[in-house]
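Lab channel / #folding
Pinned by the channel admin:
"Please post every new chain as: sequence first, then the structure tokens as a reply. Keep commentary short and put observations after the output so the thread stays searchable."

First post following the new format, from NK:
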Amino acid sequence: MRIDRKFTSECQDPYEGIQFVERVSKINNADGSLVAEIKNVLVPDSWSQVAVDIMAQKYFRKAGVPARLKKKFEPGMPGWLCPSLPDEEALNQLPVSAQYTRESTSQEVFHRLAGCWTYWGWKSNMFSSEEAARNYYDEMRYMLVRQQAAPNSPQWFNTGMNWAYGLEGPAQGHYYFDEELGRLEKSKNAYERPQPHACFILSVNDDLVGDGGIMDLWRQEARLFKFGSGTGSNFSNLRGSGEGLSGGGKSSGLMSFLKIGDRAAGAIKSGGTTRRAAKMVTLDMDHPDIEEYIEWKVKEERKVAALAAGSRITRRCLKDILKAIWSDAVSDEIRFEVQKSKPLKKAVRKALDCFIPENYIYRVIQLAQQGVKDIEFEEYDTSWTSEGYLTVSGQNSNNSVRLTNEFLRSVECDGNWDLIQRTDGAVSKTLPARDLWDKVNFSSWSSADPGLQFHTTINEWHTCPEDGDIRASNPCSEYMFLDDTACNLASINLMKFYDEDKALFDVEGYRHACRLWTLTLEISVSMAQFPNKAIAQKSFEFRTLGLGYANLGALLMVMGIPYDSEKGRAIAGAISAMTTGSSYAMSAEMAKELGTFTHYQKNKKAMLRVLKNHWRASHNVEVHEYEGLTIFPQGVQAEHCPSYLLDAAQKEWADALALGERHGYRNAQTTCIAPTGTIGLLMDCDTTGIEPDYALIKYKKLAGGGYFKIINQSVPVALQRLGYKPEEIKDIVDYCAGSGSLDSSPYINRSSLKKKGFTDDILDNIQLELPRAFDISFAFNKFVLGEPFCKEVLGLEDEQLDSITFNLLAHLGFTDEEIQSANDFICGRMTVENAPHLKERHYSVFDCANQCGRYGKRFIRPEAHIRMMAAAQPFLSGAISKTINMPNDATLEEVERAHMLSWKLMLKGTAVYRDGSKLSQPLNSVAIENFKHLEMEEDEVIEKPAEAPALVAAQQVIKIIQNKRKALPHRRKGYTQKASIGGHKVYLRTGEYEDGTLGEIFIDMHKEGAAYRSLMNCFAIAISLGLQHGVPLEEFADAFVFTRFEPNGLVTGNQSISMSTSTIDYIFRELAITYLGRNDLAQVTPDDLRSDSIGKKDQQSSDEDFDTSPPATMGKASPSASVQTAPVIKAVPSNSNGNGNGNGNGHSNGHGNGNGAAQMKAGQSAAVATTAVIAKLKGYEGDACQECGSLTLVRNGTCLKCLTCGATSGCS
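Reply from TO:
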């Protein structure tokens, strides 16, 4: 093909006019600690420090680059284009340490990429002459060095390593299609053919270990992640939980396998140290496991919150117990006695109040008895890189649900929806469609997942429907095509094509760039290797591309046009139309020279229909003129679009259609809008993809550690466009971004700091750090000031210096108001609202996705995000990677409206992000939350005086039962229960009222003495009288369960109770189970029989019970025993691990008859029933059996077995 020059001339160096300078790339954490540093980085002087850091830290090859190279000449290949090899002879002349090095200049990287593309383009017959190849090589380097465009990250990681440096490595199992041989070949080494594709869609079959099955998918994903790519899969083929297996068993279901894949992805850092593995999981709405899948991330994030809170509380309580044990105020004789040591009693009580497992409390006491005085207990936090997040599942992928028009119309009509089994097509469950819809909206509101993909719309714009439906997407949702296909992305920086002086967009330059980058992506298909045969084959057959753009938000800002405006949306539509039209026109020209993609003829009719619909949208035709659509696009509105842009867009589509009808197309898809996060930084884009800016000043936190401070550089240009004077612009920018200098700063400046001992050298270090600091406090730490100065001059201790909450400026005597004032001056207010000179009517030009900084109030309304996507979507082959940003106070109803509007405006997919909906996120617009600065003043802490014991006792008297006796009927119902307690037979008989409530009991003991039998008979009469006078049965149950005396032990003859601490305990346990549904009392652990048991939570005396009187004897109750209290309901915590507190409450008495049952609220008679019984109380492990669901698992060697169904977790 003929390639003309637009940006360069034949005798001109593409780098002419670029000044290259040596820079240092250093990434620091927010506290100033160093993460990584690379010196002597040669880059263009116009690049920002952020772009330098991206190039050096991410894209430079760090090792293995030969210091001496030679050419490997190939027949018919121009000498300058031949690949290079290590020059072994020259290398041997160098010291061993100097023979291999790293990349250190940006020119090396530009040459590596552009040269490799040109080399493979020549081999694929894409250049008509050597001149065309040279033109292409120079034009690409010109665009790369000037940040006009950039390919996706895998290109920077992998492309040209073999061509430029001769690097080789063992093959990683990749395949490629050899176009000369016309067949698939297996790669012979890792570098000869790069893996330049960022986006993959992998299929997965309902097969465990076979090729293309579940376990094979994890292996393929790992191969992709290693080379910096991302992948997505639709898992709807996998059978649901409980569906039959070929061997006769039942499937564990989809979710168990998703958790395995999630853990595998989380172990891999993609392409290096600063990027997590990128993965998309998609599921159809009719899958049997869809409900569990929708709520997956919500529940997992709850676990993180529980881990963070629980670990801190547990650590504090356990240390308090040890501290109480070793208190100097406690004598050795009672040091370990819970009932006798007041400090220990109080600490244990507090621990039980916090639901600390009794096992751990007792364990700490045992350790103390062995001389241990301190323990370590790990604390977890909610940081996205923390052990807490690594512990739970579902955090290493984006999740989406696949919605059809049929489902959404069922939601609108309040219809039912069937979940379909995968093995036989039978209906697994029918439920209201709105119930599922509500769960989707709630989960999106809670955790920003799942996203939505509109299946019908996607496939109505499918260019190759004859080869099957589009079922999935890549991780960011912009690439949507057939399973087992790949897409390599590139984005063009729109700002580089805007002439600020003329206020015009360079249409011809942009069109030329679109053509060259379409060619580049096509070359990348030819040179690439792929993770499996299927993808290699389909990539050759369909040749899908992903050209897009970045910096749309910045472009609109510098044009003085609000993002949320009809004019802004019209410009976005026109530029999108121009991008895809130019790309398809280039694809048609390539088809003329090289032929169409393999399956074009089969899909010709459908593809031309889709492209004509693109053309119709550029002309904004009436809806009835569109072909094959049920949801209609938003066309470009001519009245809001600059005429030169609209004319250019319509011309490109006219050319694309005319050329395609004659020659066909080389590529099934050509465009999509990628998020461009990393390459956007590399191109110094203020905004990514189609997004507005998140904030005018914000933090970018990287997975490998470190932070980037990002300042929107479009603000001054926009202000100039809006007519502000230079001095006004400076005032506005300083108001927003800060001066970055101590000079003239209020309160905290060179003069005030010198008075506190700061030297000029220290102040110079601070000054160097301030321009990058998000907050002034970040520049005042031991890493900037130096530990010697902090300790010797400022007198600080290690504990202070190491504390992340320590505020050095406050320690120096500056007030919060003084620090904030200085911070506003130096680091800026992070918003233009209320800036001097700025007119309020211009505020909307600078609106961001979120409120800006501490002072900003404005933000782009959620609907504006949807409408901007709707303006661009009709002109793209693929989709758009973008979130709908919502404020923290957005409601569930607003989330639902956003989802529904997205469908009706013909988006292919959407994802809601409500600010603060995630416990942690990579991008934070405010680095330090206000909560972390809140400190309670000492004078605000007012301790409540201790109340007199008499008053405490009086307060416990909540109600007194004063009812007349209710007579039982002469003929009454009831039952007789025979059981044996520790070998002693017990007969319990009951009498009931007409309504089935209990009115009397009879107790008979076998082989007991007359005195004991008489005592039990009298006791039964007393209980019966109490019941007939209106005393609730739950009062008795709460008072008498867990009483301890013989006979006790194993219980036989009762199907609900297998162990009891006494006869009385057994009787009221049986009555509570039968008449109150108190299934939580069905078992007692053997530990409760121990004489040294620490007891249940409510057996412990309250803190006010401490006194010097001797303990009550068996025959004499304490005064508090006569106080009748109304119990308080307290929900029993379920615990899937079986670790928890005993359930129950009552009152402490002289007999020590505490209890462990759930407390009840005053006046309530309903008992608390729990679905999961606490493990220690039950005697079981506490986990649910995976076969029958019973909580009857016990240890079986190193495995577990179920006493109900006999299933095991092991091989036996």
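NK: Residues 296-325 form the longest helix (30 residues).
TO: also worth noting, DSSP finds 39 helices and 34 strands in the chain.
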